[in-house]
Design goal:
Blueprint (H helix, E strand, L loop, with lengths): L7 E5 H5 L8 H12 L3 E5 L4 H7 L9 E3 L4 E4 L4 E5 L5 H13 L4 E5 L4 E3 L6 H7 L4 E2 L12 E5 L2 H14 L4 E7 L2 E6 L4 H12 L6 E4 L6 H6 L2 E4 L12 E2 L7 H17 L1
Parallel strand pairs: 1-2, 1-12, 7-8, 12-13, 13-14
Antiparallel strand pairs: 3-4, 4-5, 6-7, 6-9, 9-11, 10-11
């Protein structure tokens, strides 16, 4: 039996697998190949869409489906198939977008379909558009944007977004949740969707018990995944108030995934003794 057989490792991308920007530390790539060659199952968990994930993670080795849209979709890169998805279909979502755009006209708003991106604000900025790796369709009338939506994204300056976050949470829409995925991005999802629910469904699909799952993440949209996994890890650069959720490894720029693989191997070796 290979040492990592029966183990599922899932890594966030930004601030976790990626080094500086979207660079791929060679140490991580080598560690993932070693993990998979020795029986391990590896994939990514990200808030990105199919199009963005295919482009930005194409050089990352993975041998099982990925968790996309922060848990709203399981997607198999090998077959280019959506294996599971659950989108936003509540009219409350359209009201949320209308009210937020009205209150904060300077904040960019983007609505995600499976492979399309709708921008409801005219001042959609290039840096955020580039990070999404998709061309947007300008549509200010949200009533014309059909369901299902996989998520709603608001982008802006960090101080502005904190005010937007408070506004969204004060709306208290029961079937939607708002969370920060970076200092300049807020995401609205179904309240029953997160990376943790995505991990549970993926583990069930692969018949891997949760006690044999391992997760690496650094930000608030990783919180439920870190709470759900059997073993959780955070890079040194993770937000401080999440570090109690798992073992802290090296900074993402130094190859945090490689550190995690080493820790897993040490854990498994110690269990044999």
């Amino acid at each position: 039996m290979k040492i990592f057989e029966g183990c599922l490792l899932v890594s966030d991308l930004d601030g976790s697998f990626f080094g500086s920007g979207t660079s791929l530390p060679q140490r991580n790539l080598d560690a993932v190949r070693y993990f998979m060659d020795n029986g391990g199952l590896f994939t990514i968990a990200t808030g990105r869409s199919i199009t963005a994930a295919k482009k930005i993670a194409k050089d990352i080795p993975k041998n099982v489906p990925a968790i996309l849209f922060n848990g709203a979709m399981l997607y198999d890169f090998a077959s280019d198939r959506v294996l599971y998805d659950v989108g936003i279909e509540t009219p409350n979502a359209k009201n949320l977008v209308v009210q937020t755009n009205k209150q904060f006209p300077q904040t960019q708003c983007v609505i995600f379909h499976e492979r399309k991106l709708y921008c409801t604000t005219h001042d959609y900025q290039t840096p955020i558009a580039d990070s999404l790796c998709m061309k947007s369709i300008y549509e200010p009338d949200v009533e014309k944007i059909a369901f299902p939506w996989y998520k709603v994204l608001f982008g802006g300056k960090p101080d502005e977004l904190l005010t937007v976050l408070d506004f969204l949470r004060d709306m208290k829409i029961p079937d939607l949740v708002c969370l920060q995925s970076s200092s300049v991005l807020l995401e609205v999802l179904r309240s029953d969707v997160n990376k943790g629910t995505g991990l549970v469904r993926l583990a069930q699909m692969l018949q891997v018990p949760l006690c044999n799952t391992f997760a690496l993440g650094d930000y608030y949209n990783d919180e439920q995944m870190l709470k759900t996994a059997g073993h959780s890890f955070l890079p040194q650069n993770a937000v401080e108030d999440l570090k109690h959720l798992g073992i802290v490894v090296c900074d993402h720029t130094l190859g945090a995934v490689a550190d995690v693989v080493e820790r897993i191997e040490q854990m498994l070796e110690s269990e044999k003794k």
